[in-house]
Amino acid sequence: MNVLKSFSSEETTLLIDGDLYLYQAAAACEDETDWGDDVWSLTCDVAAAKRMFTSRLQAFCERLQADKMLVCLTEGENFRKTVFPDYKGGRKKVRKPVGYKHLIEWAKDNFMCHVQDTLEADDIMGILQSAKTHPTCIVSDDKDMKTIPGKLYRPMADELLQVKDAEADYYFLTQCLTGDVTDGYKGLPGTGPKKAEAILGNHPSWDQVAQAYIKAGLTREYAIVQSRCARILRSVDWNWDTETINLWEPGR
């Protein structure tokens, strides 16, 4: 994963959450038609979706005064399924918008994109930003990206954040406890943000996470599995020579 080597070291590169914004474009341009006699069909104005996606990227560049961008996309079997087989299991039943797969291939042909087998787009953005080899800014409305230090632009709120290392680590520990029902891992049962805040206290550490799981009758090993599901990969979690994952371990 050396896609940033071709970029100037002085120019900021926007790391775009391609999965999210291509999905939104396809969903927005999908239309259902009632043909009568209980016959319905779904269509997508793919040309309109392409224009919408392109326009959003241009708007991101203008808003952030950047000329370089990399569209990050998910491809292949997600490595988290080997860690926790039920990861995102519920999403198999959720239909993707009409035209979404075509838009993915179109984006690859028309923009600078990066895919990495077994990784999600989130992981690609997390690894590249935390590598700190080049000025970057993640562009995503996914709350999980707050676990990555550095610049984060959240378009829906028009919010530009500078996530500090301690803030990113704290949000990661919070995710280890609260889990993410949408992604299919539950974390510590019955734990929301307020309870997680109480558990972590003023000196947050992963040991507090582990102790909370053990106190609830669960194991440290189970807590590690949940944490690996929550972990958006950083540069330290990626072996650059072999292009393989260093699974997260407590204390790293």
Helix and strand arrangement:
Layout (H helix, E strand, L loop, with lengths): L12 E5 H11 L1 E7 L2 E6 L1 H19 L3 E6 L6 H4 L16 H11 L2 E3 L5 H11 L4 E4 L10 E5 L4 E5 L1 H14 L14 H8 L5 H10 L4 H11 L7 E2 L4 E2 L7
Parallel strand pairs: 1-4, 1-6, 4-5, 6-7
Antiparallel strand pairs: 2-3, 7-8, 9-10
Helix pairs in contact: 1-2, 6-7, 6-9, 8-9
Q: Which range does the strand content fall in?
A: 15-25%
- Report strand order across the widest sheet: 5-4-1-6-7-8
Q: Determine the CATH superfamily of the largest domain.
A: 5'-nuclease
Radius of gyration: 19 Å
Residue share in helix? 25-40%
Calculate the mean pLDDT score and round it: 93
DSSP summary: helix tally: 9
Tell me the span between the first and last alpha carbons. 21 Å
Shape: globular
Low-confidence stretches: none
The biggest sheet, with number of strands, parallel, antiparallel or mixed sense and barrel status, is: 6 strands, mixed
What is the H/E string?
Answer: EHEEHEHHEHEEEHHHHEE
CATH topology of the largest domain: Rossmann fold
Instruction: Tell me which CATH architecture of the largest domain applies here.
Output: 3-Layer(aba) Sandwich
| CATH top level class name of the largest domain | Alpha Beta
**What is the count of distinct domains?**
2
Number of strands: 10
Briefly note the structural class of the backbone.
alpha/beta
Fill in the keyword field for this structure.
single chain, 252 residues, alpha/beta, DNA polymerase, domain 1, 2 domains, 6-stranded mixed β-sheet
